[in-house]
């Protein structure tokens, strides 16, 4: 039941991707603003996740889980009923806030409900599986719902699911007591980090269409100022969302940066890959969902079966580095897609490679990064890691979308046909995504040097959500 709640949050990061062309046409959203439908969710999720964890400590995790699920369900209904872009984006932001409240409590609740090590391992295995395949499952479900019904149903499906999980949670999840050591939640810190991310993403998205203007530069500066204010706030807050001492660990802070770059590149395949299949190759939404099914299967099988075995035999670093290199290769293949491409020849090999490489890389990367924190800090470290994922996804999507839009606009001005210009934009964006993962690989070589990592195989102390 708890894993189902977590799955809803993860699926919602990508379920909308296949429906984006339909949403764009129905609501009249400009191409350069379309990424806000996804980014509003990611920013709220990532920016509020640390606050959500503190709220769970202060008011009880079961209570926060139910409150988050209720907020997520109501916001999903608002998304389904939205009749303009502003309403949809605002409702997506509230959805992300509900997702943060729900997801921040799931792992702690699982640990508390399953004290027996064997039962806990099975419960965490189920949780790991649903999170590993959630992003690709979202594309499949989104395609089926959009084609069979309408884009409204990619949000409306959350309502009966949310009510069912909420009823089950009220009956099955016992109330836990708030932590006696929980301080007052740092709301100002949450506002600063979330606002800073929104301003930076907005600057990147707008600059991709209008170029760097005085207004966009001022907006970007305001975003950086807000994030700087967040760092200063953490130095003086009574109960900081992010104890800066935690980041003194080179492995944890550096690993968080690797994760952010990795997810920044990986998220491009789901967002722009779905648009390429529909707008260039002419796929219907259901076909797009099926087209990404190999990614879900590869991630699920490799992360559950092959990755643990390889990590035990050769160590997490030896698994991570070639897997990141394979991700770079997969994105490089997508950067070569032609305007007259064929799915089996030009897309499927890249998706299979990306799915397999992600399934191997993600558990190893999580294990190495979490090894940089002490056991008593595992909960906070997990929050840092998950925040890095969401922030990396939001910023990466903003950058690649802006690059795609700017490249397409330039090609159209030069007289290129519409489909050729679109393809050129997507290819350039995939190249930028490959560059991001290349930087992740180079940083991983430095951060996870053999002498800095555990002598034996490492398993993550706390799971985090997969790249989406």
TrEMBL record:
Location of the Major facilitator superfamily (MFS) profile domain? 1-452
Q: Entry's InterPro entries?
A: MFS, MFS_dom, MFS_trans_sf
| Transmembrane stretches, start-end | 34-52, 64-83, 89-114, 126-145, 151-173, 185-206, 212-232, 252-277, 289-311, 318-335, 347-368, 380-406, 426-448
Q: What does the entry list under GO cellular component?
A: plasma membrane
**Primary location class:** membrane
What UniProt keywords are attached to this protein's entry?
Cell membrane, Membrane, Transmembrane, Transmembrane helix, Transport
- Give the matching Pfam families: MFS_1
- Where is the protein situated, by its record's location annotation? Cell membrane
User: Which GO terms label this protein's molecular function in UniProt?
Assistant: transmembrane transporter activity
Q: How is the protein disposed in the membrane?
A: Multi-pass membrane protein
Identify this protein by name: MFS transporter
